[in-house]
Amino acid sequence: MQNQVALIVGQGLAGTLLSFRLKQRGISHLVIDQGIKTNATQAAAGLVNPITGRYFTKTWLFEKLLASLDPCYDELGELLDETFKKNIVIWRALNSIAQENQWAQRMSDPIYEGYFSHVGSIKNQLPYFSNDLPYVQINHARKVDIGLLMKKYRQHLSANSQLLEEPFNYDNLHWTNNSWHYKGNAYSVVFFAEGYQAIHNPFFNYLPFKPAKGEALITKTNVVEDIAIKNNLFLAKETNGHFWSGGGYDWVTEDPSPTTKFREDYKSKLEAWLNHDFEIVDHKAGIRPCVKDRKPFLGEHPEQKKLYIFNGLGTKGTSLGPYFSEQLVAHIFENTSITPEVDILRFS
Fold first, then answer.
1. What are the angstrom distances between the C-alpha of 60 and each of 47, 56, 63, 107, 346?
2. What secondary structure letter does DSSP report for 112?
3. Confidence label for 9 from pLDDT (cuts 50, 70 and 90)
4. CA gyration radius for the chain?
5. Smallest Cα–Cα separation from 189: which of 309, 16, 302?
6. N- to C-terminal Cα distance for the chain?
7. Span 316-342, pLDDT tens digits
8. Which domains does the chain have, with CATH numbers?
9. In whole numbers, what is the pLDDT of the chain averaged over residues?
């Protein structure tokens, strides 16, 4: 195998996007990934939600994120001859007077102009749900088929001899003659994008990761509309016509396996929300690389030269990934700056 400019460890969403940004610049690289089927990306909904939380807060840097993610996922689609992204609206229930008041406040705020549409009752438009709460529409949302993207990009890497499918051994990585060496090959730059497994990375395990396990049920329902809808649960239509519904934050386990407790709990909640029978066709789980301050990790190791991390995308990886993968690669090869809020220097 010939020497490469860059080595990427991990092929979740972070590693995939780093590889794509390098490819856009014609920079040779190798990706090492053992192909764990229970990584967080495989269980992710792939939603880009501009308005989140109980206070209807606009996602941090949303306009910049959107300007980056739209062309990124479109160009990935052109490269891999697939369509991964679609524009959607999110129907969100107002569960209390307090939420209705909070929404009304946002409607009068100029920075939220265009992000909301009033709907009211959805009983006539979507007669699949048991309650008759008022709903609003959240505009400028996106849905990305992350699972399909990971699969197709992995095939692309393999076909171009850019993928080494095996566990990474940190003990075999050495800095010699102004480059990193791994198993007989030299690299100018090494990126670590291992997701929550970075807690075991001897170079970056000092960073305050806060891994959180999430789970999802994939269901077959009577809902025919191509929608994403949120009450106390999220229900989002997948490319294959099934619906994703998931969430959860288990902060104490490293076991990525689906649990009976989650399945029964979410099944019960779906039964209360949907007014018809549904079928569970899959149950997925994964551990997200969340961060205590809810900002990603980007940057060079404070002591080891040319050793970088791109991680901590948490629950908003589909939104954050394209923008910050471009920012990190531009920082390294074009000497641009990193947003201070995500630079790992904030912890050195």
1. 15, 12, 9, 18, 18
2. G
3. very high
4. 21
5. 309
6. 36
7. 999 999 999 999 999 999 999 999 999
8. 4-43+148-207+293-347 (3.50.50.60), 51-144 (no CATH), 212-288 (3.30.70)
9. 93
Residue 132, exposed/middle/buried by CB under 10 A (0-12, 13-18, 19+)? exposed
Query: Which residue is it, tokens 């149950």?
Result: 283
114 has which bridge partners? none
pLDDT band per the 50, 70, 90 thresholds, residue 168? very high
CB of 7 closer than 8 Å to CB of 30: yes
Per DSSP, helices labelled H in 12-124 are: 13-24, 40-43, 62-80, 97-107
Predicted confidence at residue 41, as pLDDT, reads 76
For 18, the token pair is: 């780093």
Output the 3-class SS for 289-329.
CCECCCCCEEEECCCCCCEEEEECCHHHHHHHHHHHHHHHH
Pair type for strands 116-121 and 134-144: antiparallel
Could you tell me if 57 and 51 are in contact, meaning their C-beta atoms sit under 8 angstroms apart?
yes
Average pLDDT over residues 214-238: 92
The H-or-E segment that residue 243 falls in is strand 243-250
Q: What is the pLDDT of residues 46-70, one digit of tens each?
A: 999 999 988 999 999 999 999 999 9
Helix (H, G, I), strand (E, B) or coil at 157: helix
Q: Residue 316: name the closest of 17, 8, 11, 13 by CA.
A: 13
d(CA 176, CA 270): 57
What's the pLDDT tens digit per position in 235-285?
999 988 899 998 888 887 778 899 999 999 999 999 999 999 999 999 999
**Is the CB of residue 87 less than 8 Å from the CB of residue 141?**
yes
Q: How far is 121 from 165, CA to CA, in rounded Å?
A: 51
pLDDT at 1 over 90: no
